[in-house]
Structure formats: structure tokens, C-alpha cells
Amino acid sequence: MSLPEVYLRKNEDKRLRKGHLWVFSNEIDTKKTTLEQFAPGDLVNVKSDDGKIMGTAYINPKTLICARILSRKANLKCGVNFFKDRFTTAITLREKIFNKPFYRLVFGESDGLPGLVIDRFGSVLSVQITTAGIEQRKEALITALIELLNPIAIVLKNDNSQRELEGLSLESEVIYGQLPEILIIEENHAQFKIDVMDGQKTGWFYDHRISRGMLASIAKNQRILDLFSYTGAWGIPAAIAGALEVTCVDASEGALKLAKDNAQLNQVGDKMHFVHNDVFEFLKQARLENQLYDIIVLDPPALIKRKKDFKQGYEAYRRLNQLALQVLSKNGILISASCSFHLSRENLHEILRGSGRHIDRHLVFFNSGGQGPDHPIDPASPETEYLKTFFCSVSSSL
Asked: Which tens digits make up the pLDDT trace of 293-302?
């Protein structure tokens, strides 16, 4: 049975032909297509102005990103077998890279599943659905996960603001099985207790794995300041690797409590200090008290969530980096990161250059990084590349 058709306006098929998966509402020819006939999540065949098939998509007529391509073929049947096929492809890649089941299993568009993120925590899966199209097929995807991976629990992490835009509920739930009382994952020769239900995002941030390993490799005998530390993913491997001491600063008391537990779990509690404070205020006080650190990790949450927030967010990144440089020891190292898609690598590069010149410090990049291999980048979808990290050696002015 053929799916209903959505026609694009003239010349609005160029991005799709290059491989992108999104159709914006202003790209649809509303003279040929009556959007009101569709319910959020319905499957449609997308066609160019001249009638050539662009693929099968799910549609939400109420959102700016009006349709998302699932297949370049027409009349896709989006059931259990579809999800099993996409999941199998994603698992095959991850198992080539990782020898233990701790990774991001599905990364949206890059894995051909726009609107879906899945993190694998051993036998527990954390699923984040952000669109009505995936929500409508939730039962099929859960069935596919159970048949492929036989997990002990699957959690739906629905506390995401993007769900509001799609008209979806924000209540998280254990949709299958039962969560263990204690859930432990492994990363960079460390173990971490994680809180899937109440933690941020899916409960963990796998994306910085490689950069955190790089920090551990240079941490021996260093005094480290871990800003926006969350539950200790940067600081604890550094302590294990021989750091003299690690100070973790975060505004979340719950995250710091879990970080303390993780420090004890890895037997490095005696090296670590935990400060519940706003990072801006902490840095201002540290500067007044002339506290200095050999290595500073600056890994804030996304400070630019929307394009219109760019100016304010850019200024926040600039202030953070400038303040951090002011409490860095002579010949120290600043690790500066941004997960804001709207702050480009070039923007962060310029912030670091300008901050160094402003306080008369010589700064060079000796390493740079991005998201780990379980967050693959689709070259046709620039939105899938969001993380950028610079490792900066900082000395006195030349």
C-alpha cells in the first residue's frame, strides 16, 4: 500500500540529494500538500517538485523540522525488522571499536534513526526519543532491542525539552524489566556508578571518552581542577593515573554525591575534593585567593542551545576561559571544551586566542579532540558534529 505524498517546493530538494535527512516546513509545497491531513508521526513519501522520490519520512506538521527521512526508498515499512536492521548495523560498528558493552548504541541521524538516542550500560539500555515519529513506533523499537540484546532493563529518558516541541510527555519510565539498585559502567580504567533515571541526559556522557583518557595520560603529579565535573568522569581516571589531587566543582549536589561515591569505588577518595558551587563564583574566589592549578578542565554544558542565544553564550564561554586561565599555574594546561553545536570549532579557537592575549599569556594547542567513535558524524548532516576540545599549553608571554 502506497503512503501519502508530500511535495517539496521547486529547488528545495538539493539538501536531501546531498544526503541530509531533514525537511523544513517552509520547503514543502502547501499547494500540492495539505499538511493538516497528517497526524504527528505519520509516515509519508517525500517527492521533489518534479515528482521524483526523495524517500520515506515521518512527518510532524506542527514543527519547524517538518519531516525526517528514514529511507531513500518509498513506502518503507517501519516495524520491528526495520529497527533490528538499523540496530544491527550500529552494534556492528561499536563492537569493532569497544570490547565491553559501554557505549552510545544509537546516535540519531548518523545511525539512520533521526529522533533516537540509545546509550548502552551493559545490560541496561537508556533510550531518548525526541520526535513524534519515533514515539509512534516505540513498541516496535523496544521489541527489536529486546530480541537483539536481551537487556535486563530499558529506560525511556523523556526529560528533554525537544519533546515539548513535538507535543510529547516529559515523564521518564522503566518500560521494560527492572533497574538494578546499583548500576556500574567502565571507562578509562575506572568504574562509575550512574543514575539513569535522575541523571542528566541519558545518565552518562560517553562523548568525551577519548579526551578524558588523554587527560589521564598527562595527569601524574599534577594538581587538577575539574570544572562542571558532574559525576567525576574526567577527574577520577586522572586520580587513578597518579594526579596529586583533583578538585571537582559542580552546581549539582546530587552529581557531586555520586562523584564522591565513584571516588571511593575507585579507591582515590583521599586525592579528591568536591566543591558544590557555581563555577563562575568559584573561579572568581580562587583568583582572589591566588589559588593555582597545573591542569584545568573546562567542560561546561551547552551554553548556546539556540542560534538566537549565540551572543550571550559566546560571552559566557569567553568569561569562563579567561577566568580559568587566571588560576592556571605557570606552564599549566587548560583543556577547554564546548558541546554547543552553534559554537563552532573556529569560535572556540578564537575565544582561547583572545583570552590568552587579554591576560598576556602565550597559549599553544598541543592536541584537539571531538566526540568519540560511538558518536559518528554524518558528513551530510553537520548537526551530528557538535563536540570540540582543545588541549592548551599556557606559559608566560613571549
From this structure: 999 999 999 9
Mean pLDDT over 142-154 rounds to 98
Where in the chain are the domains?
5-71, 80-177, 197-396
Residue that has been written with the C-alpha cell 560511538 in this structure? 374
Q: What are phi and psi of 94, to 5 degrees?
A: -65, -40
How far apart, in whole angstroms, are the C-alpha atoms of residue 180 and residue 182?
A: 5
Looking at 3.40.30.10, 3.30.750.80, 3.30.9.10, 3.40.50.300, the CATH number of the domain 80-177 comes to 3.30.750.80
Query: What is the pLDDT averaged over residues 17-39?
Result: 94
Closest CA to 224 of 327, 340, 365: 327
* Separation between Cα atoms, residue 128 and residue 105, nearest integer Å: 11
Please, what is the end-to-end C-alpha distance for the chain in angstroms?
Answer: 72
Instruction: Check if the beta carbon of residue 34 is closer than 8 Å to that of residue 6.
Output: no
69 by Cβ neighbours in 10 Å (0-12 / 13-18 / 19+) ranks as: buried
Question: In sequence order, what are the residues at sequence separation of 6 or more whose Cβ sits closer than 8 angstroms to the Cβ of residue 23?
Answer: 6, 8, 16, 46, 57, 65, 66, 67, 68, 69
Distance between alpha carbon 222 and the CA centroid of its chain, in Å? 28
**If you write DSSP's letter for every residue of 26-49 in order, what string do you get?**
GGB-TTT--GGGPPTTEEEEEE-T
CATH topology of domain 197-396: Rossmann fold (3.40.50)
For the four alpha carbons of 361, 364, 367 and 370, in that order, the dihedral sign comes to positive
Closest CA to 25 of 36, 110, 341: 36
CATH number at 5-71: 2.30.130.10
Q: Which residues contact 334 (CB under 8 A, 6 or more apart)?
A: 295, 296, 298, 321, 324, 325, 328, 352, 363, 391, 392, 394
CA angle (146 as vertex; 140, 147 as ends), nearest 5:
90
Q: Tell me: the pLDDT tens digits for 161-199?
A: 889 889 899 989 999 999 999 999 999 999 999 999 988
Q: Which three cell numbers stand for residue 327?
A: 588560576
Give dist(CA 186, CA 243) in Å, integer.
20
Whether the CB-CB separation of 86 and 111 falls below 8 Å is answered with yes
Q: What is the predicted pLDDT for the residue at 398?
A: 66
What is the overall mean pLDDT for the chain? 96
